[in-house]
Write a structure and sequence with these properties.
147 residues; mainly alpha; Rossmann fold; two-stranded parallel ribbon
């Protein structure tokens, strides 16, 4: 795995959002299939199912469309599940959490760049400033280059 899509970036590929066009612009340039891990798949699937089964009809419809697209991408092998060195990733995330001088970011914003670093990724695709700063500090190239 040489590139890593954080959760927000990945979600932009299945649900229309302000970053969708930018996300696709960068993903189209990457080698296919796009490597993802089991946590990313779980977070996407859990979030979409929560919205599909939630009380708001508008969110149900948006999530149902996104779910169909997610399933289509799975069948078409747009994404491929790759293994992750979980112990190393969790240890790195915990280390960053302990060394953060201010209030640390939410655990997901620590964990995704830690997974990317533990997998030896060279590029980190994210719209999340907290995750981007950790990925940059770990030596990864950030995409998009600027937010």
């Amino acid at each position: 795995m040489t590139h890593y899509l954080d959760l927000g970036f990945l979600l932009c590929l299945v649900a229309k959002a302000p970053g969708t066009a930018t996300a696709w612009e960068h993903v189209r340039k990457l080698p296919q299939p796009i490597p993802i891990n089991a946590l990313q798949a779980l977070q996407v699937e859990n979030g979409l199912r929560k919205r599909m089964l939630g009380p708001e009809p508008k969110l149900q419809a948006v999530a149902a469309r996104a779910w169909g697209l997610w399933q289509f991408y799975q069948r078409e092998l747009v994404f491929t599940l790759e293994p992750v060195p979980w112990d190393a990733a969790l240890a790195l995330a915990r280390s960053w959490n302990e060394r953060t001088p201010q209030e640390p970011p939410t655990s997901s914003f620590l964990l995704h760049p830690a997974i990317a670093a533990s997998c030896g990724c060279t590029h980190f695709l994210s719209f999340q400033p907290e995750s981007r700063s950790l990925a940059a500090a770990a030596g990864m190239t950030l995409l998009p280059g600027k937010l």
